[in-house]
Amino acid sequence: MLSVALDEARAGYAEGGVPVGAAxxxxxxxxxxxxxxxxxxxxxxxxxxxxAAFRAAGRRPSYRGTTMTTTLxxxxxxxxxxxxxGISRVVVGEARTFEGRHEWxxxxxxxxxxxxxxxxxxxxxxxxxxxxxxxxxxxxxxxG
Amino acid sequence: MLSVALDEARAGYAEGGVPVGAAxxxxxxxxxxxxxxxxxxxxxxxxxxxxAAFRAAGRRPSYRGTTMTTTLxxxxxxxxxxxxxGISRVVVGEARTFEGRHEWxxxxxxxxxxxxxxxxxxxxxxxxxxxxxxxxxxxxxxxG
Lengths: 144, 144
Description:
Chain A is α/β, with parallel strands linked by helices. In chain A, about 40% of the residues lie in helices and about 20% in strands.
């Protein structure tokens, strides 16, 4: 299920964007929505990979049993999304280049799986090296 | 500054949507962005009032000194947004009809002001009475 998120992240990288992708799956493994960070592409700071996949899945009465896959450990914003809507499980491609709030999610009862996938890590490592300021902007970490 | 958020919430109510509005202001009080929940209007579950205002403000290197006004106490999703991007202050119209995560935000150093505004509360009270299932959907609280 990570491959869909990774394809989104790669597409984002090719577009010059922040290469984080995500996908939401139902309990039976059906793909509900997929997406990628669109800060650069749409000038939209509100669209992280996870929120893009969530939006693409459309309105749903419940997220019970769903799984969100994401290439990178989710930030506070995306972790809040996951917790608020009761997404049951999060599969994280890697948490090396950015340690998000997956431990906080686990403490709130969300099942968290960290894969430490080399392709996800290599993509983010290259991006952070090439565009450090864009990356800082995307996580609200620009000082001053 | 709450009046901009309240105007957005009223417009959302008139459209048959979830009547929560928000606005983001710079440290000197300049309006940066405003918006409202768009679940019904756009079929978009990812757009809460706060995320709409944040998106409308566009890309910014820093949110230091900014104030988010919102007609309703922010949920986990919107609280995560506020914390991740370092929005300094949140002015909440009311926390009667929904007690969100403003105490959690305050514990993380965000200045939180609760106004207990009667117009905000009346609008949400009417909405929750008229469309209880839509409201439950919007906060991920549909059981089953």
